[in-house]
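ARCHIVE RECORD
Type: protein–small molecule complex
Small molecule: zinc ion
Source of inputs: curated submission
Record status: active
Notes field left blank by submitter.
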Amino acid sequence: MPKANLRPVPGSRPFHVFECSLCKTRFEGIGPVDPRIGHAAFEAAFSEPKAALFKEWNAHLYPAHRRQWEFQRAKMEKRGVAKKEAEGENPGSSL
Ligand SMILES: [Zn+2]
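STRUCTURE (tokenized, with ligand):
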């Protein structure tokens, strides 16, 4: 079974638009950030939209690629990352 990946849309500006490699659903990426502002500032400017992007991605996986969502979740649980997320909102609950 092919794995769904969140990947930048070919030909788009870097980090600007992402798509699901399986069903080509598009996600708004991270706006233009000038890498010359320095590594720390760059990371800071990225962290919020990056978190939002991955939240959207998880919300997409849940209804569209459920098996992968479960796989990813199991993997995260193994690392102890999903714990606080599991106590919070369910990515699919708004659908
Ligand atoms: Zn998809």
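CURATOR ANNOTATION: The chain is about 45% helix and 10% strand.
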